[in-house]
UniProtKB/TrEMBL annotation:
Protein name: Cell division protein ZapA
Gene3D superfamilies reported for this sequence: 1.20.5.50
Lineage: Bacteria, Pseudomonadati, Myxococcota, Polyangia, Polyangiales
Keywords: Cell cycle, Cell division
GO BP field: cell division
InterPro entries xrefs: Cell_div_ZapA-like (IPR007838), Cell_div_ZapA-like_sf (IPR036192)
Length: 107
């Protein structure tokens, strides 16, 4: 696994990690973790390993909920597309074979 070594400061602690992520991505992710730490530990409180664990669990829970919403949306989208395809197939089946567009306008 290739990457560069960077230092991340989370919860008042510095962590050295090897990553291939961009600086912007690391900054965004660090802010997300910091925000979750503040939610679980409270603002200005000492961050201990238990708080980090709680933040990780809370983020995992958020991810699980988002995946469930995504899967639900995908299932509803598939059903809607299936219905649309059925309607298109029915409409195409109603057109007589060999009829051209000018014949359709006369109806």
């Amino acid at each position: 696994m290739g990457g560069r070594q960077v230092q991340l400061r989370i919860g008042g602690q510095t962590y050295r990690v090897v990553t291939s992520a961009s600086d912007d991505e690391l900054h965004r992710l660090t802010l997300m973790v910091e925000e979750k730490l503040t939610q679980v530990a409270g603002p200005g409180r000492m961050v201990n390993p238990q708080a980090l664990l709680l933040a990780a669990l809370a983020l995992a829970h958020d991810l699980e909920e988002e995946r469930a919403r995504h899967n639900d949306q995908m299932a509803r989208t598939r059903i809607a597309f299936g219905r649309m395809l059925e309607r298109v197939d029915a409409a195409l089946g109603a057109i007589e074979p060999g009829a051209d567009a000018s014949d359709e306008d006369d109806r």
